[in-house]
Amino acid sequence: MRYVSTRGNAPVLGFSDVVLAGLARDGGLYVPETWPTLDAATIASFAGRSYPDVAFEVISRFVDGDIADADLKAMIDAAYTGTFRHPAVTPLVQIAPDHFLLELFHGPTLAFKDVAMQLLARLMDHVLGRRGARATIVGATSGDTGGAAIEAFRGRDNTDIFILFPDGRVSDVQRRQMTTVLDANVHCIALQGTFDDAQGLVKGMFNHFAFRDELRLSGVNSINWGRIAAQVVYYFVAAVALGAPARKVSFTVPTGNFGDIFAGYVAKKMGLPIDRLVIATNVNDILARTLETGRYEATGVVPSTSPSMDIEVSSNFERLVFEACGRDAPTVTRLMQTLTQSGAFALPDAAFAAIRSEFAAGRASVEATAALIRRLRSEAGYLIDTHGGNGVVVAEAFTGGPVPMVTLATAHPAKFPDAVQAASGERPALPAFLGDLMERPERMTVLANDLAAVEAFVRRRARVLA
Ligand SMILES: Cc1ncc(COP(=O)(O)O)c(C=O)c1O
Ligand SMILES: N[C@@H](CCOP(=O)(O)O)C(=O)O
């Protein structure tokens, strides 16, 4: 399996190199040259098997021998055995006759990011160890990626990790999950800007080749194909539990950077019979507007009660545009340059039609999500977080037919206690192992939204230069 860039002008790489590369050198994102497929009998055989077993079946199609099967199996087992607080790893919960929640928050930092990050850290460590190399990881977070990455990479000898988060725009729990980890290889940067600014700086560091090569940069955001590959697994696990491949299943995904729902699209490309893929946005609804008008247009991010979805530059949308444009890399390059220059681009007609044939979309206001949280608590006895709540609000417009709907519950409600309490009257408690989180000492550095300042900070701290 080889990987090509969405912009067509970067080296073609194998899986191990793609996992270390993060962003492609032409500014694009790596995707498999062709989609691996699983036939119906193979998908049916997943029924009743453990999460690590299914993960190996799916992920090995993307690794394609680049890492020995025995090593890959061992890393998958270690990632998903004993690290998640539920034996099923990603259990399903029924909230209505035809509506299920896929709980993705049973990992160490209580968000779906743990599912991929627990494996990605092991994969990167393995590849670096094999090469006797070190890397400097830079990542941007709107709240959850950062904590999951720090937890997965803390204390590792081969990597230093620098996480940029928007100062004052993540919840206290999210911030403390990052800033209270005091291992020497962990560096938290409270950026004076938005998540889009943070992501822009990360991409700026990757596109500054002298810096990128000197620091041996790697990325752990969903620009990294390893993240997407690991997230594909739970679509298979959930759909098979509900009767696939004999029965179609729909998914609604709370969306920001488009990585999670793109993983669903990949599962469909691989042969999983997915009926609808529904994009759920909050008030930052650039993707819902794009699905309506064909025009991707930034209007400015507004803080909401679901801060992890407060995103306008939705990185992985580029992977979908690449597919929808018939893998025409020059067109993707032109559209992305237009976005950088003017803050907007118009999808070509055929690409717009292709996207609308695969996806639906909707938005959830802060008020609608608060009402939903209250209703779900009183009617179903279920306390959902604001991000999953956005998903359910949007999903309910698509339920009622013969196809079951699965909404991704992407975070534990205790990550957003104030918003969940304001909506439901109940303050969700952190699990016992995080009981003293609010008392632990914090360490972070506040930096301006300035590439040179961030690069200087990374250069001063990175052990790769020692
Ligand atoms: C809790 C939560 N839900 C949903 C999302 C959106 O996921 P994605 O960025 O993959 O679209 C995020 C951030 O990524 C998140 O942290
Ligand atoms: N919501 C995310 C934003 C980054 O997304 P990623 O999946 O590209 O890492 C976060 O919580 O940080």
Structure commentary:
Keywords: Amino-acid biosynthesis, Lyase, Pyridoxal phosphate, Threonine biosynthesis. Its EC number is 4.2.3.1. Its cofactor is pyridoxal 5'-phosphate. Belongs to the threonine synthase family. The protein has helices spanning about 15-20, 40-45, 50-65, 70-80, 115-130, 145-155, 170-180, 195-205, 210-215, 225-240, 260-270, 285-295, 315-325, 330-340, 350-360, 365-380, 385-395, 415-425, 450-460; strands spanning about 5, 30, 90-95, 100-105, 135-140, 160-165, 185-190, 215-220, 250-255, 275-280, 295, 345, 360-365, 405-410, 445-450. It is α/β, with parallel strands linked by helices. It has a domain at about 90-110 and about 225-425: Rossmann fold (3-Layer(aba) Sandwich), CATH 3.40.50. Helix 3 (about 50-65) crosses helix 4, helix 5 packs across helix 6 (about 145-155) and helix 16 crosses helix 18 (about 415-425). The longest helix has 19 residues, at about 115-130. The ligand N[C@@H](CCOP(=O)(O)O)C(=O)O binds near residues 143, 144, 145 and 221.
